[in-house]
Amino acid sequence: MSADSGDGAALHVADLRAGYGDARVLHGLDLTVGRGEICAVLGPNGAGKTTMLRALSGMVRGRGTARLGDIDLLGRSPDALARLGVAHVPEGRGTFTQLTVAENLRLGAYSRRDRDGIATDLERVHHYFPVLKERLRQPAGSLSGGEQQMLAIGRALMLRPRLLLLDEPSLGLSPKLTRELFGIITSINERERTSVVVVEQNAHLALDVAQRAYVLETGRIVLSGPAEQIRADAQVAGAYLGYRV
């Protein structure tokens, strides 16, 4: 099945199980993300959200089924998955702090040989994140937390990803900068038709930008559906959004 097949789905996950050593964290997740959709994944700390992203990006071994279009994701290395269009921005950003902003961005295109395309994509990143163009020669470690998050996402875009996995992109950012960042993520999604899976503690904001949402607890999906429907669910509202419906 391709990403442009009849149901338009880009990512299909079925019975996904993963963990660390003998400790099982995910207990059979089923989820679907349509081509060009933003999917929000919510849940308390320890629910398995980060493990899910790591399994989809090859950082931990997963069992079950995970397909991006007609590509099997499980059993491949992170490097191989990056080459296939899976870009993972981990919690904590993962920038190379001793390298310059320009060097970090070039690393995002390490597997590519199309110089003209790389140059075009650098301009595209500068369009989304103008501050990075102003900081190209600075060490990444000298950037603010928000700028480092922008750099991490910009570096991921240099892969020309089909699937962008974001783990807590708002962590440590001010509310104003968080809103700005999510506005850029929405713009990337709309312009590039990139499917996005975002794990986020700011449930309000995540549900504002997402079309689809899943709620995890103890390694299992307990709620799923359109983001608007999840927002209106009394259980989600009370547990994650701080109000009653």
From TrEMBL:
Residues 11-243 form the ABC transporter domain. Signal peptide: none annotated. SUPFAM superfamilies: P-loop containing nucleoside triphosphate hydrolases (SSF52540). Keywords: Amino-acid transport, ATP-binding, Nucleotide-binding, Transport. One of its GO terms (molecular function) is ATP binding. PANTHER family: HIGH-AFFINITY BRANCHED-CHAIN AMINO ACID TRANSPORT ATP-BINDING PROTEIN LIVF. This is ABC transporter ATP-binding protein. It comes from Streptosporangium oxazolinicum.
